Amino acid sequence: MTEPQHPGHRPQVPTGPEGDGPPVRPPTAAGPPAQPPATPAQPPATPAKPPATDGIPAKPPATADTSAKPLSPALDKTFKIGLVLKGLDGVLEVIGGILLLFLTPAAIQHLVRALTAHELSEDPHDLIARYLLHTTAHLHHGTTLFGAIYLLSHGIAKIVLVALVLKDKLWAYPWLIGLLLAFIAYQLYEITAVHFSVGLTLLTVFDALLVWLTWREYRAKRAHQHHARAAAVAAPSPGGHRPARPQPGRRT
Fold this sequence. Notes:
By secondary structure, the chain is mainly α. Helix content is 58%, strand content 0%.
């Protein structure tokens, strides 16, 4: 029988087998120790700010055309000398065309005989003098008229285009190249199919060199103009803002 318990009385806790040891605790469940809480993730780093570029114009993008370099001083001088010589050639052609318009074939033959008489007296086999005499001996009105139109048209075209190129008119460069290529094609036909001439061959080589120099100069100037326009568009206004482009359909 159990003894009655009074209020406030605590029951005795059972001890070990001997009665004098500490109370036996119940066994705990085996298992790995609890992991400490994970460290909270750090916030992402603040992105670096781009360097300030106020007042500094942006560099234009590099182009793939790296061969469009300006001519060296020697080539540039050669190019200008060639243009001047081609312009003088045009002046001589204009003078020859005017003479063919106003002189009859007989007057031309008389003039050529007078100009070559001294040379033939020293060297009767002079090639240039004999060629001029042979050419003028077969002149008639139709050939002189064709020669006048040919010389005047080519001479005027050469003078105008050479003057425009010397003034750095960029659009005139392709026209000069096309005109020179037409001359080269005609001269090659004369050399290969009609009659070989050393003078005409040298003139063709000179025209080919002038075409190459004109093309190089044209590419260099066009690339420089493109870079200048790109730099002008990328440069900010004095207030630090780029000028707004006008929208299509609105008047500014």
